[in-house]
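seq:
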Amino acid sequence: MNETTIHIEELCCVAEEDLIRSRLSSIENIDQLEFNHVTRTVRVTHALEDDRTLFRAISGLGMTPRFLHERDDDDITVQRRFWTKPATILAIVSGLFATTAEVLHFSGIDDEHLVLRLFAVVAMIAGGYHTAGRAWHAVRTLTLNIHVLMIVAVVGALLLGEWTEGAMVIFLFAVAELIEERSMDRARGAIRNLLAIAPQRASVLRVLSWEEAAVNSVAVGEIVRIKPGERVPLDGVVRHGISAVDQAPITGESMPVEKGIGDEVFAGSLNGAGTFDFEVTQDARNSTISRIVKLVEEAAANRTKAERFVDRFARRYTPSIVLAALLVGLLPPLLTTDPWSLWFYRALVLLVIGCPCALVIATPVAAVSGLAGNRH
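struct:
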């Protein structure tokens, strides 16, 4: 079996995961898929002769995959400021126009008024730009997800003449997706800050002289020298010298700790006024700071019970609402003498009120609150 790790920029929530899972699961010789929304990666265990098959499959969903062979810091870095991201700007535009349309509506202007409809259309285009693209790819792969339901609900609102309602529905959903993306950005930022603690180069004793070397090239057993004010690059045991080391980022201790011969030092610790040499006991991949980063990634990637429940609920909820709307629109006219237009109208109403905006927004808000409260 082979393992291939793919970075996917658009992977930010369970809807994209379902699309990718549905597409890749249809390919033979794929054994297992492991998703990490924090690093935006999927690890594929497969027996394919050419892993470019995975690249083509994901690209066919309108996403931008990139193969990873080793850890790439760019994958956990917030690549663009939140407020300057296109999705954020579009959501702000959608909110302004949707709110204006609502104000016009409540001021007595009818939904059929051209100006009101113009504001509503701009709000729906701006707020639904990304949602419509994801809904299209979901339909292509015969997957009914929340994006499909949102677009169907907006179309239904337009057919009902409720232009302001359609604009507000798509705006609220855009806000929900931004909140979830923001929570992932904060998790990536926390991991990025952890990685920045440990230096990338170290002074290593080689062939009876000290030379600068990349931390990744330092082997277990080599001797590293730490001068005053420098950070410890790797875990080790002091072999010569004495100093006070601030290891608060690792252990949380508020005061510097005296380190002498035989004492352990941790990667990321800040040296005081002394100079000491230590023997490396763990390489860069297995250092304390690397293990902390891994734990943070796993904690951020693992979903809470409430989130897992919402995910399972959403997978069943969307097809159920669509099926219910079809039954409402078809069965009563066939079984009674009621006009088709009446029950078509009621089916559209069911689709519109079936949009779970509150449910979609609630879980990301909780995630953001948790991350904000524990970011330090």
